[in-house]
Amino acid sequence: ARDAWLRTPLAPGEMITAQSALLEREAQESSTTDEELAGRRAANGSSERGGAASTPDYGEKKLPQALIIGVKKGGTRALLEAIRVHPDVRAVGVEPHFFDRNYEKGLEWYRNVMPKTLDGQVTMEKTPSYFVTNEAPKRIHAMAKDIKLIVVVRNPVTRAISDYTQTLSKKPEIPTFEVLAFKNRTLGLIDASWSAIRIGIYALHLENWLQYFPLSQILFVSGERLIVDPAGEMAKVQDFLGLKRVVTEKHFYFNKTKGFPCLKKPEDSGAPRCLGKSKGRTHPHIDPDVIHRLQKFYRPFNMMFYQMTGQDFQWEREEGDK
Ligand SMILES: Nc1ncnc2c1ncn2[C@@H]1O[C@H](COP(=O)(O)OS(=O)(=O)O)[C@@H](OP(=O)(O)O)[C@H]1O
């Protein structure tokens, strides 16, 4: 398997639909953040999957009641794959990109992309670009003003390097991180218009969301804690979604080769599931002065973000990358 948690064969009910086939193609053609996942799923002939205990394809398709809206490279795939182990969660595998790229296709298109759910099950999807899409809060609010929003945030400096590493893997000829990060390196002027840097100005983007949603409707998950204590973060996510705490420590193990937590083998069948090779890439070495300069750049925005969310993510305590 490539970009998703390595997983067991698909349930028989998970037949590909015209809608999901279209999505797969779009996901493959576009620069979706989970491009390898799209490829793998297309190969498997499905775009969706239920909980670990395969849920038969009964029920009806509903618009999502919860969304993972960001941030790109924050740990969104790890979170989605862990939460969909919960029997009361059904989620789309690929990123639908409805509120940014596919909005003109309409809500019926969006609903059709969703897996079928039974009463009481939560429908979810993740598209990390929503967090930085200007129109997204307004559009999501127009669909469901009581929707629950989840944002996985990570040290913006590490996030920027992770973002750059992903681009570099596809376009090895791009300039170095150090070159792209500055408008003027001698003056130490950071290029905040470079998307790898702009995405990490969380306070700025959050302001846009708070025009439409109260803070109580948004859960901020620490990308760092999701790696060191996945069960602890999952407890918060399940509480926030109003679900029983089903996903716990016993679902995770730390895979030394991967260097990340992975999902244990489900009881019924299959193998343990780690995320694929595009998650947890080795980052290139970045000049420590540049990292330091970026940390200084983000500091006031981070402080503002901590104040807005009432949570201290402790990114100032970290030294260097990772
Ligand atoms: N369990 C587990 N396994 C592997 N990787 C994990 C895990 N938990 C969090 N992470 C971190 O997730 C980072 C990728 O974030 P996203 O899934 O949000 O990326 S994407 O925007 O969908 O492309 C990815 O970033 P990089 O390490 O820079 O590749 C990981 O650090």
Automatic annotation (TrEMBL):
GO terms for molecular function: [heparan sulfate]-glucosamine 3-sulfotransferase activity. It comes from the Eukaryota. It is an enzyme of class 2 (transferase). Residues 23-59 are annotated as: Disordered. Its EC number is 2.8.2.-. Residues 64-299 form the Sulfotransferase domain. 3'-phosphoadenylyl sulfate binds at K73, G74, G75, T76, R77, R154, S162, K279, G280, R281, T282, H283. Keywords: Disulfide bond, Glycoprotein, Transferase. The keyword Transferase applies. Pfam families: Sulfotransfer_1. Disulfide bonds join C262-C274. The active site is at K73. PANTHER family: HEPARAN SULFATE GLUCOSAMINE 3-O-SULFOTRANSFERASE 4, HEPARAN SULFATE SULFOTRANSFERASE. Belongs to the sulfotransferase 1 family. This is Sulfotransferase. It comes from Puma concolor (Mountain lion).
